[in-house]
Amino acid sequence: MTEAKAPDSSRRSERSRRAIYDAALALVGETGYSRTTIEGIASRAGVGKQTIYRWWPSKAAVLMEAFLDLAAQAAEAAGGGPGDTSEYAIPDTGDLRSDLRLVLRATVDEMNSPVYDAPARALAAEGVIDAELGAQFVEKLLEPQLRLYADRLRAAEAAGQVRAGLDPRIALELFVGPLTHRWLLRTLPLTHAYADTIVDYAVDGLAPRG
């Protein structure tokens, strides 16, 4: 007789966790953050709401973890390591302008993706109200990406590609600030051409060139 194997509880838990992630991201995209509930996530995921409350204290915590997982998957697909939440490592080919254009174009594609847009807006908006969630949003999602820009600008300074003594944390805002502003306000479309222009303005400066 074949010996019956006990169910693998870890695999069952991982399937449930994955279903909850998918349900939370889908519901926020379809109905918005305010109308997304723990009950709705549980129903969509096919689990009891007690399961969700056993793992997370609130729907904000569910969405944060689901979005971090989404970012980690994107990073891994782009060549990063498992668990890396910095979606697009900035290459160093020796051509700062080209490298920044590449990563800003990838960021534009991400911001225009419905999979990213709805949960990112929900977390950003809720983070304004919930200070703890806002701090987590910055620490876990934004800061790892900002460090990539700072590191690339330091390398550019060492190579003599930018002036010595610049503050990389201020300089990187010349790239990420305009994209974020246009994304938040939805005033004008985000395009690759816009990303390229931001890079040109930031790298060249606005003063007349001799």
Overview of this protein structure:
The protein is mostly helical. Helix content is 70%, strand content 0%. The chain has ten helices and no strands. Helix 1 packs across helix 4 (59-77). The longest helix is centred in the last third of the chain and has 28 residues, at 131-158. The protein is elongated. The chain starts with 8 loop residues before the first helix and ends in a 6-residue tail after the last helix. Mean pLDDT is 85; it is low at 80-87.
Assess the beta-strand content as a share of residues: under 5%
Order of helices and strands: HHHHHHHHHH
Helix content: over 70%
Structural class: mainly alpha
Tally the helices.
10
**Rough shape?**
elongated
Return the average pLDDT rounded to an integer. 85
- Rg of Cα set: 21 Å
The main sheet comes to: none
Identify low-pLDDT runs: 80-87
List how many beta strands DSSP finds.
Answer: 0
